[in-house]
Write a structure and sequence with these properties.
Number of helices: 8
Number of domains: 2
Distance between the termini: 24 Å
Strand order of the largest sheet: 1-11-14-17-20-2
Mean pLDDT: 87
Bound molecules: zinc ion
Structural class: alpha/beta
Order of helices and strands: EEHEEHEEHEHEEHHHHEEEEEEEEEEEE
């Protein structure tokens, strides 16, 4: 997200052609100013505020559906705005837990302790997601942004989201040697629940003979496989759940398209480094080389940089991403508590899935360049003195439910304005569309 305190459009993009307001229709203009309690006006008709639906400028020819710009997938378009974090709604990732054990029940947490332990682990992991700190290895001045995502334990009818499997052939995790199985998906294929819409977390153990080997490292480890992950070493280490929240966040970070931060990860605000310091120490080399990034190996795993946050939100917004299906679809229907009011000059150059109505208030400007989902029954209102710029946007309901469309308000002296800079696509909002425009699905 970017803020622009100047005027739009950018130089060279004067919105003469296609600039349109609902109030530019001759019929409305002729009667503009008359106080009347009937006519086409839809609401507030006795209060001096007039509201009319905005219809996009379209042609009757079957227009080719405009392509959404590739820049809509860029991580820079998904940076939370610290002044208005609500512009990037919080994402809720569904998770469940599978505890694998030997048939004699001796190799992992038993159900009651597992529930307590992993509920606490999830709580701590969420607390860390709610927090962010400066990434030690980022350039000076790099912003510390909220992460805007969390986990939600997800059950099925008749269960609580915890699954216990006693399976002597699948309870263990081997990360080295000839029996290495950490990359294998057999345990996932056999036991996953709702794999296409829930992140399945498998808790395994290192086998006894591996632990006894002097060369095997039976520490806490994890591996992300698609939208599932395996973790091992937790039961064996007998440490509190707080100690493994970083591991869980790290592995889910991989699922969310983040690479290790110490190598080239596509983020200019994470530097490449040897990743040799687990802890910071007052002496070199770990005085200067220690790291606290969630995607490095270290004792903290608490920091995410703006680029890392932007990258995972770009994945959440991508309609084709398997990760998106693991989100709670809180954007389908309207939550009035999540209504948004734009009072500043705002550009949304990335996709947004809104959970409430969107209002552009007097003095506010909003430019839409990418996909925007409105909740069922929701609407965009451009109040008198507010301006909305449609710049190649796709407006729809991402759950294929109906939303109401764009409404422009005016009073005796001022009107809301909608400008089309580049053809926008309107979907899922057929209500009230004039007959001549019903044939074109998008357009505008
Ligand atoms: Zn990793």
């Amino acid at each position: 997200m970017q803020q622009n305190n100047g005027q739009w459009p950018a130089p060279g993009r004067i919105p003469t052609e296609g600039a349109f307001s609902a109030f530019s229709s001759p019929f409305i203009t002729r009667f503009w100013g008359a106080i009347t309690c009937f006519t086409l006006l839809l609401s507030h008709s006795c209060t001096g505020i007039r509201t009319e639906q905005y219809f996009p400028v379209t042609t009757l020819q079957a227009e080719k559906r405009p392509k959404i710009s590739p820049s809509c997938n860029d991580w820079r378009a998904y940076l939370p705005d610290v002044a208005h974090p609500e512009y990037l709604p919080v994402r809720h990732l569904r998770v469940n837990f599978h505890i694998l054990n030997s048939s004699d029940s001796s190799h992992n947490f038993r159900p009651p302790e597992a529930r307590t332990y992993f509920k606490r682990l999830l709580e701590v992991a969420n607390e860390r997601l709610d927090t962010n700190v400066r990434n030690w290895r980022s350039p000076e001045g790099t912003a510390v942004l909220p992460r805007r995502y969390r986990y939600s334990l997800t059950s099925q009818p008749g269960d609580d989201g915890f699954y216990f499997h006693f399976d002597d052939s699948l309870y263990y995790f081997i990360s080295q040697g000839k029996n290495q199985n950490n990359y294998r998906r057999t345990v996932i294929d056999r036991y996953a629940v709702g794999k296409d819409s829930i992140i399945n977390i498998f808790v395994l153990v290192h086998p006894d003979d591996s632990i006894k080997s002097p060369t095997y490292r039976a520490n806490s480890q994890g591996i992300a496989l698609g939208t599932s992950l395996k973790m091992a070493g937790i039961f064996e280490k007998k440490e509190p759940p707080e100690n493994f929240a970083g591991l869980l966040n790290h592995e889910i970070g991989h699922i969310l398209n983040l690479s290790h931060a110490w190598v080239e990860d596509g983020c200019p605000d994470t530097d490449n480094h040897p990743n040799k310091c687990w802890d910071w120490s007052p002496d070199p080399p770990c005085r200067d080389q220690a790291t606290n990034n969630m995607m490095d190996y270290n004792a903290y795993q608490i920091a995410l940089t703006p680029c890392q946050i932007g990258r995972l939100h770009a994945v959440f917004a991508n309609l084709k991403s398997p990760v998106r299906r693991c989100l709670m679809p809180v954007w389908c229907t309207r939550n009035p508590d999540k209504d948004l009011i734009i009072r500043d000059s705002v550009v949304w150059d990335g996709a947004r899935d809104l959970e409430g109505n969107l209002t552009v208030a007097p003095g506010g400007s909003l430019r839409l360049e990418c996909r925007l989902s409105l909740p069922a029954g929701g609407r965009i209102t451009v109040q008198a003195g507010g301006r909305l710029w449609l710049d190649g946007a796709r407006l729809h309901n991402a759950c294929d439910l109906e939303w109401q469309g764009i409404f422009v308000e005016g009073n005796k002296t001022r009107r809301g304005e909608v400008f089309t800079l580049k053809t926008a696509v309107f979907e899922n909002c057929p209500a009230g569309k004039p007959a001549k425009q019903q044939k074109t699905r998008g357009g505008g």
